[in-house]
Amino acid sequence: MAPRRLLLVGEGNFSFAAALSETLNASTRVTATCLQRPAELARDPVARENLQRLRERGTEVRFGVDCTQLADAFEPHHREFDRIYFNFPHCGRKAGVAKNRELLAKFFQSCKDVLAEGGEVHVALCRGQGGTPADKPMREWHNSWQVVAMAALGGFILSDVHPFSCEAVPGYKCTGYRGFLEAPSRHPIKTINEKLIAELGKAFPLKRLKCSFTLLPERSTSVLTSWNCDSLSAAFWISLCEDNSNSESLTDGITQDMEDFLVLFSEFSLKDPGRDSREEAHEGIYGQTKVCLRPSLLAHVQTVIQAPDFLPGSLHVLSGPVFQKCPILPFTMPAFHETLFILGFNKNLRDDYLQSLLDHLKGTLDSLLTQTLLEGSKLSRSVEFIFQSNEKDYIIKVKSHNFGSDCAKDLIIGSVTTSATSIIHKDQCFMFVSMNLDLLAMLVWGISDWRMLWTFDHRFLKNFVPGKIEPFKSYSLYPPCYVHDISFWLDEKKEFDELEFHTVARAVSQDTVISIQFLSRFQHPKTQQVSLCYRLTYQTCDKALTQHQVGSMQSQFRKEIQQRLHVIPR
Predict the structure, then answer these.
(1) Measured between alpha carbons, how far is 216 from 238 in angstroms, rounded to an integer?
(2) Sheet order of strands, 394-400 included
(3) How many CA atoms lie within 13 A of 375 on its CB side?
(4) At 137, is the secondary structure helix, strand, or coil?
(5) β-strands 315-323, 206-208 pairing
(6) pLDDT digits (tens, 9 = 90+) for 361-383
(7) Rounded CA gap, 52 and 61, in Å?
(8) What are the φ and ψ backbone dihedral angles of 90, each rounded to 5 degrees?
(9) Which residue from 164, 293, 327, 126 is spatially nearest to 224, judged by alpha carbons?
(10) How far apart are CA 537 and CA 556, in angstroms?
(11) H/E run at residue 9
């Protein structure tokens, strides 16, 4: 009997291939592939170790293999695989459901070219992604990856569903997107965050904290207003619906990652002594009718300073993504990474601590923002701390000319907030320093478009060499712009929400709308009905965009604003 031939696609660090190869008998031949080139994996010690293990076992390894074009990767006599594995496929950081469906569809169609007669395709998905009744919880069909329908495009049917068992392949670690700030990341946002923390750590003792769960129950958002945070009005709110028919599977269906996040969040923000942390976390989130994506890490301040292990005089550091509705502007982003420094001290030492922190912060930022300047060039960026009208807080501004005269402006990259004495610590004052890491990275590397930070194009990270800060060079030159105007009648009974108008445009266009310009307002002389006209400009920074695609998005946008904003397109 011929030995079984297994093909593994989309391997990230080859941990699955290395683990699986050690569970198979010697007659089984494994070919492990990944999309990356060897040079891209050279800096990953886990990948290097796994590749060495595979080579020692005689496993065939191929690089640069596109799972949607498998016939191009294998000669006819090297095909005929008995089984193909694809674990946790994903297009990238900001890819939506449609893009991931497309990936699955092309993968299945590609499989039929290299699969032996009677062969199998094994795909591992996160709970709910498949869109089948076997998923617990089961997503709505339109919000799933529709795995059965995508497989049918390649001529396959679903014949079995079973849980993915990490115990069966000890050592396997999924390398899907886990955030820019995680340990393996080489993203410039992580680099700038580590430099910022390290420099401030030279002046103050550090205590790094972690709170990965980004959903806030409605009752927890009151903390934001306590610390002068005005972002709550622009928060992304999510309404939760209780489905009693599936109440048991709601708890059972939470993935291990989500369970870890819930436990961490419950211990950090929702803990009630004497109660089970998982039970409380479940009630804390699913017991709410509304939750929001956190608009600021300030939401966690109260929990940090009330913790029994809070250390006055030490900088407590939180880092993570935050989310805010915002107008479509060049340096305004709906999602970005924030680092929050929390410092507590005796109220009698307020002036000394405040001046020390501001001096070290300004010195650190000035140093970071001048690293990419060429020898002999003048300082093009300067950090300013602008005193606010309440006479106790500051905003941190940077004047930059790096992105051309049209973009020269004061950019707010952070804030310094001081507070009165705490109820818990009556003899202490607190300072909170919030930094927008995405804007800071853009300024340091000269990245003119914030969307580039979220690209899943591998060429982006090739610009960043460990230990060096050099100006970013875009790999997309002269992308075309497409302009469309839209006019609509307002509903007399409802107030028009322009921020929501921008939010819908951002969602429908998948962030390809770079500008929305108000053109005119018209009032009908007889009916008194009001019409508004706007101009939308479409452009991408990292991928191709055709006129046909833009036309489709504009058509969809007309439908969405009619449904969600109750206007009548003209």
Answers:
(1) 10
(2) 206-208, 315-323, 335-346, 428-436, 409-419, 394-400, 381-387
(3) 0
(4) coil
(5) parallel
(6) 999 998 888 865 544 444 456 78
(7) 11
(8) -165, 135
(9) 293
(10) 15
(11) strand 5-9
Rounded to whole angstroms, the Cα distance separating 243 from 247 reads 6
Structure tokens, 306: 């009330």
Residue in 223, 191, 198, 195 with CA at minimum distance from that of residue 315: 198
Stated as kind and residue range, the H or E segment containing 181 is none
CA distances from 257 to 208, 260, 378 (A): 21, 5, 48
| Dihedral sign computed on CA atoms, order 267, 270, 275, 278 | negative
Q: Report whether 67 contacts 107 (CB < 8 A).
A: yes
Q: Whole-model pTM?
A: 0.67
* Three-point CA angle 283, 289, 292, nearest 5°: 90
Domains and CATH numbers, the chain: 5-168 (3.40.50.150), 191-207+315-461 (3.30.930.10), 482-569 (3.30.70.380)
Cβ 513 vs Cβ 536: under 8 Å: yes
237-249 as b/e: b if 16+ CB within 10 A: eeeeeeeeeeeee
Where b means 16+ CB within 10 Å and e means fewer, 59-68 reads bebbbebebb
Question: How many CB atoms within 10 Å of residue 231?
Answer: 17
Q: 432 - beta bridge partners?
A: 342, 417
Q: What is the mean pLDDT of each run of 10 residues along the chain (570 residues)?
A: 81 87 85 89 80 88 93 88 90 73 93 92 86 79 85 91 72 60 80 92 90 68 54 71 39 32 29 38 50 86 86 91 91 93 87 89 89 50 83 85 62 86 69 94 92 85 80 90 95 90 92 95 92 96 90 94 93
Question: How buried is residue 525: exposed, middle or buried, by Cβ count under 10 Å (0-12/13-18/19+)?
Answer: exposed
